[in-house]
Amino acid sequence: MMDTTGTLFLPPGQSTIAPEVDSLFNFILYAGTIFFMVVVGLMIYFVIKYRRRGADEVTPDIAHNTKLEIIWTVVPTLLVMVVFYWGFHIYLKMHVPPKDAFEVKVTGQKWFWSFDYPGGGNGVNELVVPAGKPVKLLLSSKDVIHSFYVPDFRIKMDVLPNRYTVTWFDAPNPGVYNLFCSEYCGTSHSKMIGTVKVLGEREFAAWQESSSNAGAGMTPETYGEQLYTARACATCHKVDGSQSTGPSWKGIYGHPVKLADGSQVTVDENYIRESVLVPGAKVVAGYQNVMPTYQGILNSKQIDALVAYIKSLK
User: Using 50, 70 and 90 to split pLDDT, how confident is the model at 187?
Assistant: First the structure.
């Protein structure tokens, strides 16, 4: 049974593997605490009992105690073997997903997560999965090392450039859970925060249908504003005129900007589109070339909506 209350050290466990991870953690914690108390307690006791009481008192010359040395060698060795076997068993379970798992491609890049679903859907910083079904994550990075970490599920996996890593989970309870990058990956590492949304069977089916019709019934400006947050543009670009990792979008459309190479360009539709797909082509002076490409993440309709939104920011 899963722990839904949490403890001083751990949040509530919300995956099927969480109780096993928590049991091992608690065993190590309690065993370490007991040994600490025993060792420190004996140290204090021996310091008091065998303290030197006079100038002529000499410490007895004791070479060793065979029985004691066997005990303090065998007992820790057995505990280490137990922890190794226990931990390796859980490790194998966490890294071998079931054959019928729902697979999602996860890409980490500075500084957001993108998700590609079976059937062509995609999303940024919000992983949507069905409740009570194994979910396999195929992870890779476009730039540096990241680490995919969901504390409530007790899963953490390094996300590496030029190779794939795999992890999986089964979350029985619908809800929204925090997702973090737990590997320092640059200036905005602390902003690389997302969520895992676990939906019931009907809700997940409805989400799949609605995601294929994203933007329907909205004006381009409204859809672009929604994408500004949903696609993590807000991480680096502000719309209130303040500066961040990237230039502010407020009032930028139709105005000339100076580029890092000393040239100048007017911000129009083509410039915005190029900056989304090939961000390193024309870098604004005073900013680093750190923006990732959104090629394959945003389609033409979504890029048009972002252009419309930027044009509306007078």
Answer: confident
Q: Is 110 contained in some domain?
A: yes
Residues 226-276 have pLDDT tens digits of 888 877 788 889 888 888 888 889 888 888 889 888 899 888 888 888 888
Question: Is there a single domain that holds both residue 240 and residue 140?
Answer: no
Cα 181 to chain centroid distance, Å, stands at 3
The answer to whether residue 32 is domain-embedded is yes
Taking the C-alpha atoms of residue 106 and residue 119, their distance in angstroms, rounded to an integer, is 15
**How many angstroms separate the CA atoms of 208 and 39, rounded?**
57
- Domain containing 247 equals 220-312
In 242-278, which positions are buried (b, 16+ CB within 10 angstroms) versus exposed (e)?
eeebbbebeebbeeeeeeeeeeeeebeeebbbebbee
Shared domain check, 61 and 86: yes
CATH code of 304's domain:
1.10.760.10
Please name the amino acid found at residue 278: V
Contacts of 64 (CB under 8 A, 6+ apart): none
